Amino acid sequence: MKDKIRVGIIGCGGIAGAHAENYLNCERAEIAALCDLVPGKAAAFAERKGVAGANIYASYDEMFEREELDAVSVCTYNQAHADPTIAALRRGVCVLLEKPIAASVEDALRIIRAEKESSAFVSVGFQPRYDPDMQKIKEICQSGELGDIYYIQTGGGRRRGLPTAESFVRRDQAGVGAMGDIGCYSLDMVLNAIGYPKPLTVTGYASDFFGRDPRYKFSGSFNVEDFAAAFIRLEGGIVLDFRISWAMHPDTPGDTIIFGKKGALRIPSTDCWNAGVGGDMTLYYDDENGEPTEKKIPAAPDHGKEDCFACKVRAFVEAVRAGGPAPVPSREAFINEAIVNAILDSAEKGGEIVVDLPEV
Ligand SMILES: NC(=O)c1ccc[n+]([C@@H]2O[C@H](COP(=O)([O-])OP(=O)(O)OC[C@H]3O[C@@H](n4cnc5c(N)ncnc54)[C@H](O)[C@@H]3O)[C@@H](O)[C@H]2O)c1
Q1: How far apart are CA 315 and CA 344, in angstroms?
Q2: Is the same domain home to 290 and 149?
Q3: Ligand 1 within 6 A of CB of 88
Q4: Which of 52, 128, 265, 294 could disulfide-pair with 258, CB 3.0 to 4.6 Å?
């Protein structure tokens, strides 16, 4: 096992800062290279973040040619996830890929096919998985306490939370809107808890009323969804009722509730992408006399997005040193992406979509 791994960061925008800070705090990793296609951006990032000694590149191909790297963080916008990830995998370099895995099922497939042919792995950046409340939700679902799960309603959103960066709202850069930014986390919260069954059919709806309002500063270039909802049938007879919003009039589109044949779990409306749940959870079940009863599952003390992010980077570094497996496997992120894309396809078509995922 390597004592210290050599890491590169591709894409030196907003979220790359959190990657850099956590690599700098990790004695098992050194940042050897930084890359951004915008001239001067990687150098300015190195200066601002105190990344001393890293070599600076405007092209990741050149970076891979010149550097001996063990791993990279891919922090480019969604439409630019696949190519640098595949370039890394072809050179046996492991990838911590920011979420969502890609902006299309085709790109996600290209990534997992390249991973299959590579000695390296891809881990996808869902840091809320390191949150104790998210882990508790998974523990409850996997324990059998709820019995067979048959219906889940989930989602969340911001009342007025359109992005402050334009790269999130232009289809040519983001590919998807609220679903790719925050919806993928809501899906991951429940799908990870129940073991990521495959989607079978999706009926979706998407709208953009707030993003196109001239009062929003990027309304002129806004061409993704700011709200989406869907009814998703999953393998195993499970139905997932989902909604996500960057902007809406109500304060929440509702709690998450997981219905099982023996019990149910209510998770108060949560911005799960920032880690944590919106308050104590409730477990509903029948007592020994068959009477409906309930108990509180106290929310964990605030763990925070920063802590989860630190755990995500540390877990990745340790997995690279150990030669795998990926902490957050690409197959799960691929299913997540397939649902997001099917929602958009269904919304455009105005009818149900049959999801037929190829085996990889
Ligand atoms: N995990 C989280 O909490 C979290 C938070 C925010 C964003 N994200 C994700 O991180 C990704 C980036 O988001 P951001 O806010 O940092 O975006 P950003 O637009 O601020 O930064 C993206 C950077 O990538 C660079 N880039 C694009 N294509 C490139 C290429 N081919 N080679 C080199 N550089 C390239 C751009 O020039 C830009 O500097 C998105 O996928 C987003 O969904 C994750």
Answers
A1: 33
A2: yes
A3: no
A4: 265
